[in-house]
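Methyltransferase type 11 domain-containing protein: structure, please.
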Amino acid sequence: MSEMAVDLTFANSSLAKTYVEFRPLPPETLIQHVLEFTKEKRPLPLEICVDVGCGSGQTTMQYSQHFQHVLGIDVSSEQLELARNRNSHCNVSFKKGTAESIPVHDASVDLVTCCASVHWFDLKKFYAEVNRVLKPGGVLACYSYFGCSPLFKGKSLRSEFLEIWDSLDKYWTEGHEYLRTEYATLPVCYPENLYLKGLSVEHDATLDTFLGYICSFSAFSKMKAAEGEDVANIFLEKSRKKLVSAVGHTDDDPPMRRRYDYFLRVFRKPLQ
Ligand SMILES: C[S@@+](CC[C@H](N)C(=O)[O-])C[C@H]1O[C@@H](n2cnc3c(N)ncnc32)[C@H](O)[C@@H]1O
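Here you go.
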């Protein structure tokens, strides 16, 4: 991908709060895969994990019991403030910084993680930074999900959901194409790597939950800023109607489920 300036869409306190409310947590099985891969060539105890693009920190904290110290890095002060307020772990801290200039020493990190964030970065600069900060045998783990699948009485409304996603097309970044390919096209950082898909989490939901989730899209936030509140509200109403029609023309808010299918790419820095 070409070089790009750091995108500050998430530096918006209202979007940061919506994000906390409507975004999922990666499944514990995914975290275990990352840890197993890391432990293969790094001696225990694992010392430092750096979570880049940590946002409000919920995914950073998932590593607290596995490392001596976990550091979350984000470019957005608003996201970091939420992360610090939510943090109850004494070995987890947060610092402002960018993926392209990670504020840690050379060869000091066992694991660099990026949850739903690597597709925002200037990959050339980020991979160079990863190579600088990782210890030999250290690991880069990139994982995400591509939207969600609304489920109603066992029926998937994934295609309706993707239509909503696609209708915001001009507001998604070039990097979001990596989500569409489930990170299969993400450039290789190191030859030794692992690619896993279909690591899912499911939660209860209502139509309102899906609308809240759409409000947490960076593309929705950009559309609202460019076209105004009224256009954004009309977009939400149309999205609601599309989902209502798919569940069978009900005006109620029927109990539904939402599934997020995570994919994971892990790369190991050579020992020498
Ligand atoms: C989609 S959010 C993911 C947040 C968190 N990892 C999660 O899964 O909940 C992407 C985050 O990456 C951050 N970000 C985007 N570009 C960045 C960059 N170049 N350097 C550091 N953080 C960046 C944004 O501020 C945002 O908090």
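Notes: Residues 13-268 form a domain with the Rossmann fold fold (CATH 3.40.50.150).
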